[in-house]
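Structural prep section.
Before we set up the soaks we want a predicted structure of the protein with NAP in place, mainly to decide which crystallisation condition to try first. Input record follows.
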Amino acid sequence: MPENKALWLAAKRAPFTFGPAPYTAPRADEIVVRARAVAVNPVDRLQQTMGDIVTPWIPYPFVLGSDVAGEVVEVGAGVTRFHIGDRVVGFAAGSDKSRNRAAEGAFQDYVVLLAHMASPIPDALAFEDAAVLPLGVSTAACGLFQKDFLAMKAPSAAHEPTGKTLIVWGGSTSVGSNAIQLAVAAGYEVVTTASPRNFDYVKRLGASQAFDYRSKTVVADIVGALRGREVVGALAIGAGSGAACVDTVAACQGARFVALATPAASFDDVPAGRGRWRRLAPAIARMLSGSLGLALKARRKGVRTKMIWGSALIANEVGPMIFEAFLPAALAQGRFVAAPRPTVVGAGLAQIPVALERQRQGVSAAKLVVTL
Ligand SMILES: NC(=O)c1ccc[n+]([C@@H]2O[C@H](COP(=O)([O-])OP(=O)(O)OC[C@H]3O[C@@H](n4cnc5c(N)ncnc54)[C@H](OP(=O)(O)O)[C@@H]3O)[C@@H](O)[C@H]2O)c1
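Run finished without errors. Recording the tokens verbatim:
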């Protein structure tokens, strides 16, 4: 049996530690992957500092991480899509309440994945490129395709133009980069926001127009650009995006729905240890007042909003829609690219906390990756 090592979170709010981990064989619908590259996400940091609030069900010690690319080393009895040696990318679902297993966290050498949440990758796609995909594409897909969110048509090679427009606020984020491509692949026009330095980037991904989210006139500018168009709703990513999207869709023609990726307040400055309560109380107050303010604005303007949970697709038709039906062929044929580009922070599990700290300082149209 292979020797496994993991980046452990020994207890809630503990510092990460690096050490041996059991190797877990796959159940019938699972595969085991030798991780070669993992990416870090804002939620990984939040789970370390705020796990008792964000994912209170987690049994410690635990292994975090959602994004992994590597080689299949073992295949569950019921799995026919994969074979030992296949190069794959997959969504590590260990932190979802329905999975809740350290064996399914990405931050270890041998990761158990749900087979329907993994895709084969073409030989030309490096593991560090592929690793940027899973949580970004999953969160975007949850907002776009779940029936209780924007309920858009599925992406496919043979899509018909729908004649409708999706607003993606925060198109240069990891979630936004995937949302733009998924919506275009489903036959929608995409209008997005980003910093001007990333306008070319979001247009290369398929957005037809880009606006600066820092501009005082951004909402009016988007509303003006969409005059005469039918919108399918908005995906709100980034601080302040929820309120801006509510204002925008309320003034446009079409569906009055905003799928929210970003919470009403950030907990980024709340440390796990010393000084926690001094920072936590105001952050909770900001969250409550921000959520209430957004709910009141949405009600006043007749707009529905709903917060995305980025792993919800593991339990519905959207997971297989993306990881089985769409991504394998779309990646192989170059119809979908792994974006944003990876910045490799280093090699080895011990580099993951370094990547998380760099992530806290902010990235722009880039995803931080560690090779293993
Ligand atoms: N609900 C869920 O399940 C779920 C899952 C994953 C992520 N998220 C959330 O989604 C958000 C994005 O996550 P990510 O990993 O995709 O982020 P990311 O790629 O790390 O975000 C970096 C990008 O954020 C953009 N940005 C910063 N402030 C912005 C603002 N006010 N409006 C629009 N864009 C802004 C920057 O754009 P420029 O450089 O162009 O300025 C930069 O490219 C985070 O809030 C994250 O917590 C939620």
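Observations: The longest helix spans residues 276-301.
Flagged for discussion at group meeting.
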